[in-house]
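=== RUN LOG ===
request id: a7f3
mode: sequence -> structure
chains: 1
length: 497
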Amino acid sequence: MRRVLVRLRPVVQATRTADGLHLRGWASSCTLSGGSGLWKVWQRLAPQLEAGIPRTSLEVPEGTAAAVRAAVSLILEQLWEHDMLVEMPSWGADAPAPEVAAWLESAAGEPVEAWRRLRAATAVMAGHGVLQDAAVRAAEAVGLAVRRSEAAGSRELVASAGDLVVLAGCGTDAGYVLPPTARGLLSVNTETTMQIAARLGVTGDPPAILSALIGSAAVHRLVCALAGLPDPAAGLATGTYPMVLTAHADPLTATYHPLLQGPPAPDPWQALDALTDDELGPVDAPVLGALPQVPANLATSGDALGIGTTADSARLNAALHALKTDGVLGIDETHAKGAALRLAARHHRGEPADAHEWTGDPTAHRWWKALTARFGIPAVVRVERLAPGVHRAEIGNGRQVLAWAVEATAADAVAFAALAATGYAQAGRAGTAHLNGAAPLKPADHPDWVTRQWHWPADVRDREERLQQAIARLPGVRIRPLRLDPELRAAGLRAYR
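=== RESULT ===
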C-alpha cells in the first residue's frame, strides 16, 4: 500500500517581507505577519513539505520553542486554508511526465485520481491541418491516448473523449474555444459556433501560431473536464453564462468572454455586460467616449444614445435603444412591462396637476433648472393626473415635444422628463426623449443623511408595481408579451407591445 503524504503544491511561491512572508498559490495568496523569524521557519519547513510528510508528522516536536511552534502552526494553517497543500499517495509505476505531475499536484484535489482518469480516456481530435496537429501534440504531451479523425473542416476542431466535447475554430486572424459540453448538445453548439465565427471574423487558413494557441486551449479545457479539475475560465464567469476563449493573431491575445446561452444571470448588470461584450455580445459595447458627463451621464452604443443619472444606467439605456425590435424592451420583466404600459398610456387625457406637486421637489427642480438654465432651452412643462397614482409630464418648446414621462408622482414625472430632455440637449441630439423609473438601478450604499436628491431614482422602482397596476386599469391600455430570440432571452431581456 502506497504511503499518503502531505506535499506542498509545486506552484506555491514564497517571498520574504519585512515582517514575515507572502505566499502565492494556484488561485489565491496570503501574507503572514509576525516578524523576520517567519521566513527562517519557512526555509526549514518548505523542503520537508516539498518532499512530502505524513500528516501525523506535521505536529511540531515536543520541546520546540513556543515562538517556533506558533510560527509553524500559522504557516500550516494558512497553507491548508489557501489550498497550497495536497494530501496524496505516491504516483506508482505509471507516473506522468514530471511537468504533468507538477501540474496535477498544483491544481488537482486528488492528483493520482485525476491522472487515472486521463489514462483511461482516449481523446479524438477531429479536424484537418495545422489546427488538428496542434491539438494532437498538446493531448499527447499530457499523456492522453489520441486518435485522429477527419470529421471537421480546416478551420474547425472537435476535441472529444467519451461524452465530453470541446468545439473550437481558428481562422487567419481569430479563433475561439467553447467550454466542454455533452455530446448530445453538439448540434446546438454547432449553431453557436457559426454565430461566434461570424462575429469574430473567423475566415481564411489558420496560421501555425494561432493554431497552436487554439488547439492547446481546446485540449486544456477537455483535459480539465476529464480530470475533474476546474475549467480554465472558472472564477471569470459572468453570472450563469458559459465562457468562450477568443483569440486574435495581431497582437497574439487570448481572453475569456461570456456567451449568451442558458438562463439569465440573476444580476441584470451581469446580463448587460454579456449583452454588450465587445467580442461576443449582440450589441455594441456602450461607451462614454467624448460625450460630456455633467450634469447627466451619457453613453452611446453605435448611434443609440443612453441617458441616466449614473454611468451604468446610461449604458443600459444606450444598449436597449441600440436593439431593434417590434416592441418595447426591458432588461427584466418589470422594466419591459413598465415601459410598455407607459407608452400605451402616453396619449391618455387627464386633469391638470397642481404645480406645487412638483415645483417644491428638489430633484424635479434640479433637472428642470439643468434644462432651462444650464442649456438655455425655452421649455414649458405640462403635468396631468391620468388616474390616482398616475401622472404624465410633457416638456415642449412650442414647436415639438422634447420629452415625456409617466410616473406615480408628478415630481417623478417631471424629473424623468427633464432629465431626458437635458440628456438630449447635452449630447446635441434632436427629437423626443423618454426615460422612466421601471429600469433597475445598481444597488448603492448611502449614509442615512442623504436626501432624495442624492439617491434618486433608487426609490422610484419601489412604487413600480402599484403604478403598473394603475396604468393597466386605464381605458384601452392593453399590452402583450413578445417572444425574443434565445440570445436576448438569455440576457434576461423581455419585450411587450
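=== NOTES ===
Residues 6 and 259 are 39 Å apart (CA to CA).
The chain has four domains: 4-89, 121-258, 268-327, 345-482.
=== END ===
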